[in-house]
Amino acid sequence: MTSRQTLSPTLADIEALAQAAVERLPPLFRDHLGHVLLRVEDFPDAEVMAEMGLESEWEILGLYQGRHVGMKGDEPSGVLPDMIFLYRRPLLDEWCEGEDSLEAIVTHVLVHEVGHHFGLSDDAMEAIEAATN
């Protein structure tokens, strides 16, 4: 993204911000994300909305799907890879309504979802986020 950008950030723009945030994570965490897929979509699909009990697709900024690190080992057959989803349109809405940069919002959501991958508490996630800034 450039400072003169006049169009909404694309899926690729959000992914680039998220990848940059991953690179700022402490190596201990970054090294264990190699097999976690990062996906950026405009909105969650109907299945996610039903599973999460969401009334609107605007209610969720990101989602971790998978088994946290402490549950790894004997993987059931047919298990999908662990994935972190970021939802572009709700992220942009949050950005437009607030005072934080889009980079800060994407980083915050990404760190929170990475925390779910590691089975971390909210306090631990806040400490990791502070280290990425």
TrEMBL record:
<keyword id="KW-0378">Hydrolase</keyword>
<dbReference type="GO" id="GO:0008233">
    <property type="term" value="F:peptidase activity"/>
</dbReference>
<dbReference type="InterPro" id="IPR038555">
    <property type="entry name" value="Zincin_1_sf"/>
</dbReference>
<protein>
    <submittedName>
        <fullName>Zn-dependent protease</fullName>
    </submittedName>
</protein>
<dbReference type="GO" id="GO:0006508">
    <property type="term" value="P:proteolysis"/>
</dbReference>
<dbReference type="InterPro" id="IPR010428">
    <property type="entry name" value="Zincin_1"/>
</dbReference>
<dbReference type="Pfam" id="PF06262">
    <property type="entry name" value="Zincin_1"/>
</dbReference>
<keyword id="KW-0645">Protease</keyword>
